[in-house]
Amino acid sequence: MSDLRITEAFLYMDYLCFRALCCKGPPPARPEYDLVCIGLTGSGKTSLLSKLCSESPENVVSTTGFSIKAVPFQNAILNVKELGGADNIRKYWCRYYQGSQGVIFVLDSASSEDDLETARNELHSALQHPQLCTLPFLILANHQDKPAARSVQEVKKYFELEPLARGKRWILQPCSLEDVDALKDSFSQLINLLEEKDHEAVRM
């Protein structure tokens, strides 16, 4: 090969390296999903979302109406609309369901029997609501770090999830503020369900 050809080859390789390093376009935009987050007061919804957003726990105030947080992940951004869980607010939850692409339900796995029964009824109502029944659900059994916490198997049995949610997309995961990696993994599984639903919609 002549010196000219060798020089041209090196120049072309330099050009390709330059394009790869300096001329890359912007990274593809991460998909955004609009989610609704529900659960009784004291279940830990606000604290969990604040933890995912790396906010200081000292600044966490229980949600009385509703709030919206953009929770960033490597492959998606979750726009989470958190609804307050007080008795006088829960009856208005359904007004905020429209436009949701997924549901996060947080329950206190260490709560009293009465509160657990109320949470069970609210989850059953959400799973059967016309605007939510086809959406992916992430059910978080929170406060697993407390001595009175029920296991995931106990929660699944008590909430009758197997018969009620058969045929639906749902995940039941244990969580606590002490294990942020497990919390992030739960949300990653939810993102996978959201992506699957997107792909099914495209195929249709």
From TrEMBL:
Give the residues the record marks as binding Mg(2+): T46, T63
Q: Which InterPro entries match?
A: ARL15, P-loop_NTPase, Small_GTPase_ARF/SAR
Residues that bind GTP: G39, L40, T41, G42, S43, G44, K45, T46, G85, N142, H143, Q144, D145
* SUPFAM superfamilies listed in its UniProt record: P-loop containing nucleoside triphosphate hydrolases
**What GO MF terms are annotated?**
GTP binding; GTPase activity; metal ion binding
The alphabetized UniProt keywords are:
GTP-binding, Magnesium, Metal-binding, Nucleotide-binding
One Pfam match = Arf
Gene3D superfamilies with a match to the protein in the record: P-loop containing nucleotide triphosphate hydrolases
This protein is called ADP-ribosylation factor-like protein 15
Q: Which organism is it from?
A: Ailuropoda melanoleuca (Giant panda)
